[in-house]
């Protein structure tokens, strides 16, 4: 089982952002995507997660292996921490949220409504959701935003444990994740060349 | 799937969930119409079926934009789209949750409001039956409208404009059932058409809604 991306090109809002991105992940590996703001990190991750079609190239992964976590944590403000996690566990057909609560240090907050959590605590809950999905490939977009240093270390430990258990992680970030062993792929050189304006769509009508 | 239904129901009943919004609107309408039209029982009895059906329809419309907009804003919709549940199922469950929290309460209070509007006695059964048959169509069609406008900020107006024309057949046949029932006429034809619209909408629209959501999430 592996995640293999070949010659991927993707676009956002009809504008090509990236082309020719290729990499492969095997169990136990983590890959960090880097690059300046707007270079297409999020778009690449959304494409790999299956939320939008690729313009070109191939994404090979066994079906139902990817767990995606975007910028938003997908939490319901009026549900408690336990209720939020239990819901996602039920959706992914796994049981037991205790492990995730313990690992992300959410035990004391278990009965608190998500609307009363701080930004960092919400983020921890969002990451705990990944642990209850039971899926091997984690696709994470800026996972450590608004986390404090202790929580970043906690997150790095969780990712390490996931990798050690044969999982994979694909992360986009521009800040330090505390995972020196992860490979880094800079997306800067894969920027899509802008289409030649002279060969535009309008030509066909002129 | 059941977990999603439970979550949506729970969210609707918690603070700010929007449960009761449609119900309150329906109640206000039924209280205000007799005050506006006057207490003449024959006039009220004549317009009661139409008022009740229009009220139920508008009450349904009020809460439509919440079906997907909230899940879109907090990122849940992205996560649901990547989860191991078919999006068609998610859409159907969301429509069902909307019906259970909006449609069913409207059906249940409608006889009481019929009393306020001097609805003739033989029509009560038909009122309940026609709303029971018709409101699922309102929820399913509304879910389709909500799916179409999901990425738009303040898409409420556009949603109403898109959905209202689609609601017209349900309204026409639903109100026809009640007014024919009130006059003691045969109601078979409008009732069958009403049930047909609901069955068709429930069977086909979730596929359209799921497809539209996939496009809107890109």
| Euclidean distance between termini CA atoms of chain A | 51 Å
* Structural domain count of chain B: 1
The strand count of chain B comes to: 0
CATH class of the largest domain in chain A, named Alpha Beta
On the 0 to 100 scale, the average pLDDT of chain A is 85
Strand percentage of chain A lies at 15-25%
Strand ordering within the main sheet of chain A: 5-6-7-3-8
The total beta strand count of chain A reads 8
- Name the helix and strand elements of chain B from N-terminus to C-terminus, one letter apiece: HHHHHHHHH
**Contiguous helical run count of chain A:** 5
| Largest sheet report of chain A | 5 strands, parallel
General form of chain B: elongated
Radius of gyration of chain B: 18 Å
Which architecture of the largest domain in chain A does the CATH hierarchy give at level 2? 3-Layer(aba) Sandwich
Biggest interface, chains and residue tallies: A-B, 30 and 25 residues
Mean pLDDT of chain B: 90
**Poorly predicted residue ranges of chain B:** none
**Main beta sheet of chain B:** none
What percent of the residues of chain A sit in helical stretches (DSSP H or I)?
A: 25-40%
Layout: helices, strands, pairs:
The complex is a heterodimer of chains A (206) and B (218).
Chain A: E1 3-12, E2 15-25, E3 30-34, H1 41-49, E4 56-60, E5 66-69, H2 81-91, H3 98-103, H4 119-133, E6 137-141, H5 149-164, E7 168-172, E8 183-186
Parallel strand pairs in A: 3-7, 3-8, 5-6, 6-7
Antiparallel strand pairs in A: 1-2, 1-4
Chain B: H1 2-13, H2 21-37, H3 41-62, H4 66-73, H5 76-82, H6 87-116, H7 123-148, H8 156-183, H9 188-217
Helix pairs in contact in B: 1-6, 2-3, 2-6, 3-6, 3-7, 3-8, 6-7, 6-9, 7-8, 7-9, 8-9
